[in-house]
Amino acid sequence: MIRWWCSAAATPWTWAWRPYPGVWIFVALLSGAWFALMRRTTADRSPDTPSGVPFFIGVAMLWIALDWPLGALAGYLASAHMAQFLVIALAAPPLLLLGLPRTPVPPATGMRRLITHPLLTLVTFNAVVVATHLPAVTDALMHSQTGSLLIDLGWLAAGLLFWWPVLRPAAHPWFARPVRMAYLFANMVLMTAPGAMITFSDLPLYSTYELAPPIPGFSPLDDQRLAGLNMRVGAAIVTWTAISILFLRWNRAEVRLMESESAAARITPDPDPPASHGTP
Amino acid sequence: MIVITPACSPRADSSPDAFRGRHLAAPLDSVTFTLPDTDGRPFHFGDQTRGRLTFLFFGYTNCPDVCPIHMAALASVLQRLPFETRDRISVVFVSTDPDRDTPERIREWLDTFDPTFIGLRGDIATVNRIQQQLGLPPSSIATDDAGGYMVGHAAQVLAFQPDGVARYAYPFGTRREDWLHDIPRLLRP
Fold this sequence. Notes:
Chain A is mostly helical and 280 residues long. Chain A has one domain (21-42, 49-102, 109-264). Chain A is 67% helix and 0% strand. Chain A is built from eleven helices and no strands. In chain A, α4 (78-98) crosses α8 (145-167). The longest helix of chain A has 48 residues, at 220-267. Chain A is globular. The model of chain A is unreliable at 276-280 (pLDDT under 50). Chain B has a single domain (35-187), classed as Glutaredoxin (3-Layer(aba) Sandwich). In chain B, α1 (66-80) packs across α5 (176-187). Chain B is built from five helices and eleven strands. Chain B is globular, with a radius of gyration of 16 Å. In chain B, the strands form three sheets. Chain B has a six-stranded mixed beta sheet with strand order 2-11-10-5-6-7. A three-stranded mixed beta sheet of chain B has the order 1-9-8, with no helix packed on it. Chain B has 189 residues and is of the alpha/beta class. Helices cover 26% and strands 28% of the residues of chain B. Chains A and B meet through loops of A and α1 and α5 of B.
């Protein structure tokens, strides 16, 4: 029987390829949505930054995370499940958002301003992270394809929401680059808690992975520790990469501002020039 | 693989003092049998296990899921116990696939979990007779698409307490925390 979405399976793991048509449909829908959006909008894109590139890198990352083998391994190994989480919730969403057409942003309405408020997005993202890593939730959902799909979509939605104010801050003018860097750093600190819980637990937390058909070389506890480490290191890599990019852009913007100010000072004629002391 | 699993949960009763294993309606008393161990010496179950907490499991080394999961869980749990507790516990594995499970193969496989685990091997008729004596279904062969075969067998571990009576069985699904919860209780006189 063809399984359409990856989930925990009771059958022993093999390296034989298996199709997951649901993932292909999802990827096709996502790609189709981008093309449809591009046709509908009059994108204001500069020629050196084709917006399709980051978007399709993000789509490719999602495909890798959801399809065989990583998606299938996520039903056997907590560490693979965590790698999936990092890609779906943290790495792919900013690329998808960067690849959206850069149309002029209409004024934010009250509801949109509220939903994309950085404080709310930070809390929502971390609530989803904690909830989807609770053993009871993971064990209840990972054994069905629908449950696994819900987790994956929840991660993607939470990731898009989390990254939205960082990449589309127009609705919140106060959310300047230094504040955005602090936002990303705060998120990394918050994610330390579930990461530490997973890393330092004495016993396997998830029955899904403790009782999964074993994969040689991985004990459930070693696998779980690797998962916790994945979460902390992966989150740190994504966060510091994003902070570095924001810092460099902030720095570049400041330099440009200073240059334009000094240029303006040079161009503006002095209304009261000093008296000449030299006498030819 | 065909796994014969009793319809039960390892957590039927959630009260803290309750055992998480499945209580056997008819405790198994005076169970004795003799099979050669992996060194070829006769192992007298009953005589050599009396006074110790003994976990008895029937399985096979090519088993893809239940057997390695049970063995790995037991090995992991025993490592966490204090030496004096650990020293009062035996794990006995009886092969239900004597054609493929040579003594060397059984020893090699058990050593990947814990070298103190005892491996026993006998002809399948004898092993099935022992399983029948314990109220377990006989093992069965199921061929697979690749021309190999799997062995259906009981999925529970029987816990024989130091008085030689088995009152609890641990089905597939028993977790490490369940073993850690029950072992001190199983050792109580």
